[in-house]
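Any chance you could type out a protein's amino acid sequence plus the matching backbone structure tokens because I've never seen that pairing?

——
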Amino acid sequence: MTGPEPRFGTDGIRGVANRGLTAHLALKLGIAAAHVLSRHGVDRHVVVGRDTRLSGDMLEAALNAGLAATGCRVTNVGVMPTPAVSRMVVLAGAAMGVVISASHNPFEDNGIKLLGPNGRKLSDALECEIEAALDVWETLPRPTGAEIGRIVSSRELVAEYVAHLTASSAVTLDGLSLVLDCANGATWAIAPKLFANLGARVDVMHAAPDGANINHGCGSTHPGGLAQRVRKNGADAGLAFDGDGDRVIMVDAGGRVVDGDRMMLILAEGMRRRGELAHDTVVATIMSNAGFETALEDRGMRLVRTDVGDRYVAEAMDAMGAVLGGEQSGHVLMPRYTPTGDGMLTGLRVLAECRATGKPLATLADGMETLPQVLRNVRLRDREAWKSDATVSALIGQAKAEVGHPEWVSVRASGTEPLVRVMVQDRDATRVDRLVAGLVLALAAAGE
């Protein structure tokens, strides 16, 4: 049985594979996207990659068929991290990139995200054009004869991507002992070789994908096992990637988790010291911890906040010329080096700061105090009904007034899962717990 077809969210189209996100939808999306490309008069060369999910083969075949049926040349690069596909689009001069992945979601889900010729996610406007074309896909013109597109498989650009990572990291890892958690995802083959070739002694976890074990109790959303292994090995640090490799969460030698906020603070301090941090500004979302904001201010820097989603961080960075931004989840943006978040590059740049300062990760990560912050996910039958509920609206307003910082309270529907996410942070942990509990109860009542 199939469900309703998903549409574009904050990170492409996601849904349960073969239920909402079907091969039929992938075929239609390929046709619609190719049609929009032709309407804009660009060379219709598309680079397609995927993560290790079982459903990736099915969706890849259908999507590629739709692209070729509308005249696109498709270069199929197979299992590849999202940032690798992003870089390959730029290297190949392609018109578009496609990544078939649901990132950190469980393996039953999958997703399709589209990248522009600059290697970054398509604009909302272009996604709207493609959605409109989806609605009339059967009426769209199709070429015949020699105008039908070709599909070729190629891994030729992998070496260039790895060389780019190596050059951009500007670090040797001789003498370092690292543990890598590859989440049984798209980094499983590249990351161990990359870090070992830079000189590190590497212990690898969760690098045996079977199509169903991606993100299962491992990776950036489950760093507990990595922390235990780092302590057991006496390693200097650990790195946990997500399923498509655009995020990383690090662990210091003591097993303490170093999240995106702490990594961005480490990077910001180094960049400012070298005169590289434009406007002394870092861009992050409303989910970043208030302690990160305070730590930046104490060092003469500032934090600009955006809505949740790396695309909104990227847009704000473009608008103000910022060179560092990201999310607490470990999705860090450094456009000087790469068009999109790259977990391997982020980890390497943080390790480069350790080498530059002569300090271990644990010492650099001590640069901020984490203020009390609670996130709760509420699963509702109708995840939109709360928006018009007077009780919920009043409680949100009261919570913002009580903490004194409106951006420290967030209630939003997830863009990738059927959830409403509640986040409250403040210096007073008791207040945070009380406000979150009240909001969760009100949301549950509104969603009944």
